[in-house]
Amino acid sequence: MTALRNTGCLFVVATPIGNLSDITARAVDALKKVEIVACEDTRRCRTLLRHVGAVPAEIISLHDQNETAASRRVLVRLEGGSDVALVSDAGTPLLSDPGFELVRLAFGEGIRVIPVPGVSAVTAAVSASPVATNRFTFEGFLPARPQRRRAVLSSMLARCEATVFFEAPHRIGDTLGDLLDLGAEEREIVVCRELTKMFETIVHGTVAEVADEIETHKGEFVCILAGVGEESPLLSAGEVLRVLLEELPPSRAARVASRLTGADRAELYRQAVTLTR
User: Fold this and answer.
1) Residue 62 near residue 98 (C-beta atoms within 8 A)
2) The predicted structure's pLDDT at residue 217
3) pLDDT at 232
4) What does pTM read for this prediction?
5) Which runs of consecutive H residues, i.e. helices, occur in the chain?
6) Per-residue pLDDT tens for 26-39?
7) Full DSSP string of 113-150
């Protein structure tokens, strides 16, 4: 364990995900107190700083493309005695946002790291979810490559607990289509768009129902996919097929899954071929 040193403090500050009124009094105090703010997008950050009346001496850009170099630059400021606030564009830093390298470096150098909790798209979605989330796994953004994305979705469908994940507007249709191809048309899902903003939308239903209803033109999505759960002890035909594919070739897996569930054998074979590509 590294002993704390007499340096500046790193405040990890949660910021609003859309509605600026959601910022906490403690977050405002931290942003006004620190000499330096490290953020993803300096323009968006300045809008927030103006809103709360904070005027830091320096704003440092720290995003996915420069995270290593920017983290070391911020570390020098901390070691020099400056307090720093780390913020993301929206929500809580490190949740599918940059900042991990800086936090890890700070701990390694004995610099005090202080969380200033607040808004998160994850907790906002979970708090309004009709899908049970007493236990859930957070997956973050799904892979962009179709084959990798389907593999992740397949593993999510086998979980007992719910899964919370993010998706981009231009990929939400493909993701819901992948779930349909994986035989999850009856699985319960919640899809949230534009949380806390003017056009906030929360859609709940089966994957098949939501795929027909959801609008995909703008706004990032937070999705909550129900787990198998104790209340759903029986596997769907698609889930049975996935288990059988671990041991059998596609044609035989489809034949056995059809016999076990009564589902159409030809459709199961089509799904099996897709899953094994």
Assistant:
1) yes
2) 64
3) 47
4) 0.80
5) 25-33, 42-52, 67-79, 100-108, 121-127, 146-157, 172-181, 207-213, 237-245, 250-261, 265-276
6) 999 999 999 999 99
7) EEEE----HHHHHHHT-SS--SSEEEEEEPPSSHHHHH
Task: Measure the CA–CA gap between 150 and 178, rounded to whole angstroms.
Answer: 6
Six-digit token pair at 239?
A: 């889930």
Please write the tens of the pLDDT for every residue from 164-211: 999 999 999 999 999 999 889 999 999 999 999 988 999 999 999 999
Beta pairing class for 221-225 and 162-167: antiparallel
What value does the mean pLDDT take over residues 212-230?
83
Mean pLDDT (whole number) for 112-139: 96
Question: Nearest to residue 182, comparing CAs of 89, 106, 97, 257?
Answer: 257
Using the structure block, give the residue that is written with the tokens 């249709």.
173
* 197/177 Cα distance (integer angstroms): 27
Express as a percent the part of the chain with pLDDT over 70.
96
Answer yes or no: are the C-beta atoms of 164 and 139 closer than 8 Å: yes
The tokens for 83 are 């307090």
Check residue 161 and report its DSSP letter.
S
Token code pair at residue 244 = 């059988």
